[in-house]
Specification:
This protein is α/β, with parallel strands linked by helices and about 270 residues long. It has nine helices and nine strands. The chain has a single domain, classed as UDP-N-acetylmuramoyl-L-alanine:D-glutamate ligase, CATH 3.40.1190. It binds adenosine-5'-diphosphate and ligand LCLJCK34.
């Protein structure tokens, strides 16, 4: 039996809904062996982020080396990277280990407003990491920050995707969770064509970690050999089920249900 392996390079969410915890749960649910390189510890729950404690650059590098040299990496995703120093170190490790299936979730700000990426790290994200990525998965505020464009319409989303693609990333997937309307529109630009993935918008406050979970599902599918487009289709179904079959945890923005997709018969 071939075991596919995915690495997440991200921050820890003590509340279990986002970050490394969401990524590893999603990998497991999709039948992929998950490994991790921790970039920061956050003291976090459904009410918000109560503390951020970054790892040293050496600690991040050593974790990536340990996983790459022994276990192997079929795909990897990045989440909260926090600083320019960590971004630069991760970019160097991607090159050193010749990782190709790189999914960048450009995590910037948590739902409650806490910064998870230092402002001065944006340039490193754009110039060092994005050119190495197979896919980048910004939400709308992140796509606006990277492209320096305002997004108010589907046409704006397309223009922003083209601007981001010009930074050297092969596929840009702008997630539509922050839009309004009865339907969510996630837009994929592959450098030539646009593809849209839609879902019924669920009226719930329990959407903590949706972005992490969506990009982790894409990463797992890509580890198994799926194309970017097929991986996005599966990830959309995975997150739709996870939000629809909500679990009531905590008193703020609760996590999604990571086992819903499997319980519905997906795998
Ligand atoms: N209320 C919702 N109902 C259905 N899908 C949602 C909802 N909120 C977010 N999504 C979906 O979850 C995924 C993550 O999107 P988004 O919330 O924009 O990311 P982030 O958590 O990074 O802000 C996307 O596929 C988006 O369409
Ligand atoms: C440790 C950590 N990493 C990432 C996030 C952001 O997760 P995201 O999926 O964008 O979800 P929300 O913060 O929007 O709920 C995080 N909060 N913590």
């Amino acid at each position: 039996m071939t075991i596919c392996k995915a690495l997440t390079i991200a921050g820890s969410d003590s509340g279990g809904g986002a970050g490394i915890q969401a990524d590893l749960k999603t990998f497991q649910e999709l039948g992929v062996f998950g490994t991790s390189a921790l970039t920061a510890v956050t003291a976090q729950n459904t009410l918000g982020v109560h503390g951020v404690y970054p790892m040293t650059v050496v600690a991040v590098e050593k974790q990536i080396d340990a996983v790459a040299s022994d276990i192997g990496v079929d795909s990897l995703k990045t989440g909260m990277l926090f600083s320019a120093d960590i971004i630069e170190a991760v970019a160097l490790k991607i090159k050193e280990h010749h990782f190709t299936n790189v999914i960048v979730d450009p995590v910037m700000i948590a739902k409650g407003g806490a910064p998870l990426l230092q402002e001065e790290a944006m340039e490193a994200l754009k110039t060092k990491l994005l050119p190495l990525a197979l896919v980048v998965t910004p939400n709308i505020p992140e796509a606006e920050a990277i492209s320096k464009r305002t997004i108010k319409s589907e046409e704006d989303k397309k223009e922003a995707a083209k601007v981001i693609a010009a930074l050297g990333v092969k596929n840009v997937l702008i997630k539509g969770g922050h839009d309004e309307g009865a339907v969510t529109y996630d837009l994929l630009y592959d450098g030539k064509e646009f593809h849209t993935f839609t879902g019924k918008r669920i009226d719930t406050k329990d959407t903590h970690g949706t972005g992490c979970t969506f990009s982790a599902a894409m990463t797992a599918e890509i580890a198994k050999g799926a194309s970017v487009r097929t991986a996005a289709e599966t990830a959309k179904q995975f997150i739709q089920a996870a939000i629809e079959d909500g679990i009531n945890i905590g008193s703020g923005h609760g996590p999604t249900n990571h086992w819903a997709y499997r319980q519905r018969g997906g795998c």
